[in-house]
Amino acid sequence: EIGPDAGNTLDAIRGTHEFIAGAPSETWGYSQDYLGPLLRFRRGRTANISVANRLDEPITAHWHGMHVPGYLDGGPQLAFGPGETWAPELPIDHPAATLFYHSHVHGRTGPQVYRGLAGMIIIDDPEIDDPLPRNYGVNDFPLIVQDRGFDRSGRMTYNLGMMDRMHGFRGDEILVNGVIRPKLTVPAGLVRLRILNASNSRVYDFRFNDGRQFYQVASDGGLLNVPLATTSLQLDGAERAEIVVNFSDRSPVSLVSHDIGMGGMMNGGMMGDRGGSMMMDDRGMMGDRGMMGMAGNSGTTLDIMSFDVGETAPVGPASLPTTLPADAPELGDPVRRRDFTLNMHTGGMMRGMMGRDGQMMGINGEPYIMDRIDETVRTGETELWRINADMMMRHTFHVHGTSFRVVSQNGRSVDPARIGWKDVVRVQGPTEILLRFDKLASQETPFMYHCHILEHEDAGMMGQFTVT
Ligand code: C2O
Ligand code: CU
Ligand code: CU
Fold first, then answer.
1. Edge-to-edge strand order for the sheet containing 431-435?
2. Which residues form a coiled coil (predicted)?
3. Ligand 1 center to residue 62 CA distance, Å?
4. From the CB of 106, is ligand 1 less than 6 Å away?
5. Which residue, 8, 57, 227, 271, could crosslink 215 as a Cys pair with Cβ 3.0–4.6 Å?
6. What CATH number matches the domain at 9-124, 3.30.260.10, 2.60.40.420, 3.40.50.510, 3.40.720.10?
7. Which ligand gives the minimal distance to the CA of 455?
């Protein structure tokens, strides 16, 4: 379980965690055996955090989604070694939101996050009146959702096969806050769930097993303009959503995910002969949905967790407001456009398939290199970024240092009110985002943009930019 108490020290330590009873796994955490504590920051304050590295390899602490300058961002250039401490003073200048923190060492983000160097951040804004359930642990719960693989003895493993290198790692068991299929007791009323997909690559399509309606009230960067009624919610890696669920009918219910199979990992269209091996699903079989499915379900339903309605009287608001106090600065028209192509291969196909050099993927034809600045951005100028992929594969695109608006996906324009402020967007075809930076990032500590499928990021699908 993740405690509400942030403290101000994060010690990256080794631990053991029994995901499966009787089978302790070797894990890492920030001040915990596995994962880190919930960090709760207040807008307008400064958070002093001291991160100590008690492991035997370099780590960082990246405040994913938070608007802080490059030298505080915890990107790859800010890696610090065993025995060292990094003590940033973070000015909290971000609307109320559910964010993410994790280690971000180039080439090691996947294994480090997998081991447990990750956690959730909640930002409160004393200037707004949050009309939603907000009693932490009573009617407001963090759900850090991850998939993990286990060997026959029940110990957590991270073995990347060829398919994992291509599509990103997928494990068979789903954890919520480090627990396999937990049960949560909730009051018989409105409950807010802050869901963070902290998986390395798995995409979830959340629903309740009885098909009940719920409301999405926030996305990555904070509150939406209005609560959105829905029965399903897709989250790619590193995306967050806050939802409000009504449990007043008192019936036990579970949160499930309709598995997005490999068919859903393709973005449609033919792969050509290079793609032959990608037509297989998890079991190495040709899926009957083939590779044509757009976010097609493979038909499997994964159990995520279950809810029991307790005897306690409902607390907090009895109904949802019709509008929410969303943060809505005007971005205006873009003064510049940039194009990014996510490349599955920057070298030969065979080298890519082998993947042992760890540098076969890239953006705009180049794998990530720590001392090359790929873009230079000016503060205060609104830009349109157009993201594409060179193969029919589903990716995500994450940008450090700001939140953005999604303008269009696959040529269709998107209603920003329905998506809100984002820092990760699914890329299944041409995707346009509108963004502006207020925080600076120097050549020594630039901001990153990358695919948040961590195996892609580690393989070089990342670039970096300064903001001056
Ligand atoms: Cu979640 Cu560049 O990070
Ligand atoms: Cu980030
Ligand atoms: Cu990717």
1. 362-363, 336-343, 383-389, 431-435, 405-409, 412-413
2. none
3. 7
4. no
5. 227
6. 2.60.40.420
7. 3
CA of 331 to the centre of ligand 3 (A): 27
Same fold, 9-124 and 336-467: yes
How many whole angstroms from 340 Cα to the centroid of ligand 1? 17
Output the tens digit of pLDDT for each of the chain's 468 residues. 344 444 589 999 999 999 999 999 999 999 999 999 999 999 999 999 999 999 999 999 999 999 999 999 999 999 999 999 999 999 999 999 999 999 999 999 999 999 999 999 999 999 998 999 999 999 999 999 999 999 999 999 999 988 888 889 999 999 999 999 999 999 999 999 999 999 999 999 999 999 999 999 999 999 999 999 999 999 999 999 999 999 999 999 999 999 776 545 554 333 332 333 333 333 333 333 333 333 344 568 999 999 999 887 778 898 999 999 998 888 999 999 999 999 998 864 444 444 445 458 999 999 999 999 999 999 999 999 999 998 888 999 999 999 999 999 998 999 888 899 999 999 999 999 999 999 999 999 999 999 999 999 999 999 999 999
Q: Is the CB of 238 under 6 A from ligand 1?
A: yes
Q: Kindly give, in sequence order, each residue whose CB lies less than 8 Å from that of residue 330, ignoring residues fewer than 6 positions away.
A: none
Q: Is the CB of 64 under 6 A from ligand 1?
A: yes
Predicted structure pTM score: 0.91
Ligand 1 proximity of 17 Cβ (cutoff 6 Å): no
The distance in angstroms from the start CA to the end CA of the chain is: 41
The structural domains of the chain, with segments of one domain joined by +, span 9-124, 140-261+296-309, 336-467
Question: Is the distance from the beta carbon of residue 448 to the nearest atom of ligand 1 less than 6 Å?
Answer: yes
Going by C-alpha positions, the residue among 368, 340, 379 that lies closest to residue 461 is 368
Ligand 1 atom with minimal separation from the 448 CA: 2
User: In this structure, are residues 374 and 463 in contact, taking their beta carbons and an 8 Å threshold?
Assistant: yes
CATH for 140-261+296-309, options being 2.30.42.10, 2.60.40.420, 1.20.1080.10, 3.30.390.30: 2.60.40.420
Say if ligand 1 is within 6 A of residue 104 CB: yes
Is the beta carbon of 398 within 6 A of some atom in ligand 1? Answer: yes
